[in-house]
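This part of the workshop introduces the protein records we will be handling. The structure tokens are whole numbers drawn from a learned vocabulary of backbone shapes. The record below serves as our worked example for the rest of this section.

===
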Amino acid sequence: MDDDDLFSWRPPRARNSDPDTSHLAAASVSDEMADAHYAILLGAIHRHGPGTMYDIKDQCSLDIQQVNKRLPEMERRGWLCRPGWSTAGPTGRQCKIWYECKRDCQYRKLPSSHRLCDLPVPYDGD
């Protein structure tokens, strides 16, 4: 997909197996709103670097539900990747760390079941 066609593919926002309420909620999200969310999230990650969904939420104007919904959509588009590292979130549970996926990132070139990434191990603050 080239840069001119960046926002043309639309990921499904609800699965066939989801309840009717999920389909109603998905239908209420306009493409323009999702595009705005993508731009906000990419900007936050680009400016502040990799982070968990909570870290990313703290760096932008979106709420945690919006962030949590858009990040996997952006991963399916090849804009973000989760190489497998995690860190404790605010509840103490492990959260995956999201990275901006560059064009030349090895993570993008492998099938999802075999993804390994040459991204650096994140700094844990110690």
